[in-house]
Design goal:
alpha/beta, Rossmann fold, six-stranded mixed β-sheet, five-stranded parallel β-sheet
C-alpha cells in the first residue's frame, strides 16, 4: 500500500521549518494535524479539596511546560505569592527557560536535566532536604512518583490539570494510511471517538515505550516505533518506513 495520507495526533507546527512539512514534500504526502487529547484546568476551588498547601513546599518539579502554566495559574487564582526562595527543578533546559514567562529567571534557583526524568532524578537526589511539589495531570506517568519514592524524597502530588479526549466526531471516519500517536491517552481517545475502529491496513506509529505498550494493549498492530537508535525522532521513523513501503509498491 502506497502511503499518501498521515494523521498526526498533535497540534499543527507553528513554524514552516517543521520536519513534518519536509517529510510531506519529500514523499508527496498529505499530513493532517489533530490533537486527540486536550488539557483542561483543575479549578482552584477543586484543588483546595486536596488540602495541599503550596507554600509548605520549598521546591517545584516541572516535567512539562503545561505543568508550569497550570502551577502559576492556580497560584494566581488562589492569590498565592510564590516566594523568591522557591527552587525550580525542570526536566529540560527548554522547560526551565519557559519559566521566564512567570518569574525573573536570573534571580531564582533553577535546575534542569537533559530531557529525561531519570536524569532529573539524579539532580533531585542531591537536594533531599527540599520538600517538593510535583504538579501533574490526572493521567500522569506512574514512573515519576515511583522514581521519587525510590530515592526517598519528600513530595506532594498536585493534580492541576486533566487530560481528556478531544471531540473528533467531525472526522466521520479514520481515512488515513498512518496514524501517529505520542501518548497512551491518544490511543484511548481513538476508541472513545471511534468505538468500532478496525485497524485493517492502517499503520500505527507510536512515540515512546508507554505509547507503544498502549497500542499493543489495545490489540492494535504497532508498525512504526520511535525513538530508536536508527530513528531518534518520529519524522525519521516515518521517513524510513514510507521510503520502504512506497519502494515496495513500485515493484
Amino acid at each position: 500500500m502506497k502511503i499518501k495520507r498521515i494523521l498526526v495526533s498533535q497540534p499543527e507546527p507553528e513554524t514552516e521549518k517543521s520536519p513534518y512539512f519536509d517529510l510531506a514534500e519529500k514523499h508527496n504526502l498529505k499530513i493532517d494535524f489533530r490533537p486527540f487529547i486536550q488539557v483542561v484546568p483543575v479549578e482552584a476551588k477543586v484543588f483546595r479539596k486536596d488540602r495541599i498547601n503550596i507554600l509548605d513546599h520549598t521546591a517545584v518539579v516541572f516535567t512539562a511546560r503545561t505543568a508550569v502554566d497550570h502551577f502559576f495559574r492556580v497560584c494566581e487564582e488562589m492569590r498565592i505569592t510564590v516566594p523568591d526562595t522557591m527552587k525550580y527543578f525542570c526536566i529540560s533546559e527548554a522547560t526551565a527557560f519557559y519559566l521566564q514567562k512567570y518569574i525573573v529567571y536570573r534571580k531564582r534557583k533553577i535546575f534542569f536535566g537533559k530531557n529525561t526524568f531519570d536524569e532529573l532524578l539524579e539532580i533531585l537526589d542531591k537536594h533531599k532536604e527540599e520538600n517538593f511539589l510535583l504538579p501533574l495531570s490526572d493521567r500522569h506517568k506512574t514512573e515519576i512518583p515511583m522514581g521519587m519514592d525510590k530515592i526517598n524524597l519528600k513530595y506532594s502530588i498536585a493534580i492541576l490539570y486533566q487530560t481528556v479526549a478531544s471531540d473528533m466526531s467531525d472526522l466521520i471516519d479514520v481515512n488515513y494510511d498512518i496514524l501517529v500517536f505520542f501518548s497512551p491517552s491518544g490511543i484511548k481517545s481513538l476508541f472513545e471517538n471511534f468505538p468500532t475502529f478496525i485497524q485493517g491496513e492502517i499503520k500505527i506509529a507510536a512515540f515512546g515505550p508507554t505509547t507503544a505498550q498502549a497500542v499493543k494493549e489495545a490489540n492494535l498492530r504497532l508498525d512504526i516505533q520511535a525513538p530508536l537508535p536508527e530513528a531518534p525522532s518520529m519524522t525519521m521513523a516515518l521517513d524510513q518506513f514510507i521510503k520502504n513501503a512506497n519502494k515496495n509498491c513500485k515493484k
